[in-house]
Write a structure and sequence with these properties.
This protein is 81% helix and 1% strand. With 412 residues, it is mainly alpha-helical. A hairpin with a 3-residue loop joins β1 and β2 (387-388). Keywords: Membrane, Receptor, Transmembrane, Transmembrane helix.
Amino acid sequence: MKVLDLLRKLYFYWSDFRFGVKSFFSTNCYQFRDVMMVGAGFFGEKDVPLWKYCCMLMYRLLGYYQLVMAVAKTGLSICEGDNFLDILGSLLVSLFMLAVEFKVFMFKHYRQSIRQIQSFFDGRYGHSGDYRFDIRMYRRANSVTWKAFLAMYLLICCDQVLIWIPNSAQERMFGIPTRFADYGSRISKTMQGMYLCSLAYFWGCRYFCCSSIVMPLLVKLRADLAIVQHGFEMIRINTDSRWESNALLWGYLKKLFNRTVKQHFRILRHVNLMQPAVNNTYATVYYSNMGLVALAVFLAIQSGMTFMSFCLIITAIGFMVECYSWCFLIGLIQDTMMEISSTASQLAFLPPHSPKHHSEYVQWRTSLMIVQLNASQMDWFRCGNIFFISTERFGELCMIVYRFAAFLMKFA
C-alpha cells in the first residue's frame, strides 16, 4: 500500500507540474523566443546597462571568430589538397554560417515592419460572436508557438552537446586548421575551445531567428482568419432561421456583419505589410536548405555510425521540418481563406431583396463580394515572388535534396 500511495503522489505531483508548465507557456509563449534571441546575440530590450552591452559584444565577437576560423579552414583545406570529405565538411560549416548571416540580414531589413505586425497581432483579439471558440483558437495558437520554440531550442542544445563529444569526425569537421598547431599546444587548445564552446548554440539561434519571429505571426494570422470565418458562419447560422419571422433583421445583421468585415479588412492590410518579409525570408530558408541538407546527408552517410553523423542527421531533419512548417502554416492560411470565400458567397445569396431595405441589401452584397474576391486570392505568399509556397513545393525540395545527395555519392 505504501508503494501505491507513493506512486499515486508522484503521479499527482507530475500532473501538477505538467499542468503548471503548460499553463505558464500557454500564456507566456514567447519565453523561448526571447532566450533564443539573446543566444543569437540580439538584445531583448532597448536600453541595456554597460556591462550587459560589453558581455553581448564579447559574445558576438566570439561568434565572428568562429566564422573567420571556419572560412579559413575551408580555404586552407582546398589549398592544401585535403581529403574530399574533409573539404566538404569544412565547406558545409562555412556555407551554413554564411547562410545564417544572410538570414540575419533579412531579419534586420524587415525588423521595422515585423514589429508593426507584432504590435497588431499582440494588441488585439478577434471576435466571432462565439467567445469559447475565440479563446480556444488563441490558446491553440499559443500552444503551437511555444512547442515550436521548444523544439528549435532542444535541437540547438542537442547539437551543441554532440559537438562537445570528442571523436575523429568532430576533429575533421570542427577542428581548427592544422597550421595553428605550430604555435604550441596551449594556444591551439585555447583556440579550439573558443571555436567549439558556443558554435552550435550561437549559430543555431541565429539560424532560427527569422523563423522564431515570422512563424508565430503566421500562427496568429491563421487564428485570426479562423475567427473571422467563424464570425461569418455565426451570422449565417443565427440569421438563417429568422428571415421569415423577423423580416430581414438588418439592425442585428449590421452590428455583427460590420464588425466581422472590419476585422477581415484590418487583417488584409497587415497581410500586405507582411508579404515581403514572409516571401523573401522563406526564399532564404528554401534555397539554403537545398544545399545544406544535401551536404549534411551525404557527409552523414559517408561518416558511418558516429556521433557526428547523428548530429548531422538531426540537424538536417530540423532544417527540413522548419521548411515544412512554413509550407504547412501557409497552406492552412490559404484553406481558411477559401472557407471565408465560400461562406461569404453563401451569405451573399441568403437574404431576399426588399425595397424597404434596398440600400442595406446593396451594401451587404457589395461588401461580401469584396470579401469573397480578397479571400479567393491564392498568391498571398510566394517564395521570392517566384512560385507559390505550398506543401507540394516542399515535396519538390525533398526530391532536389535527394538528387543532389545522390550526385555527390556518385561523384565521391
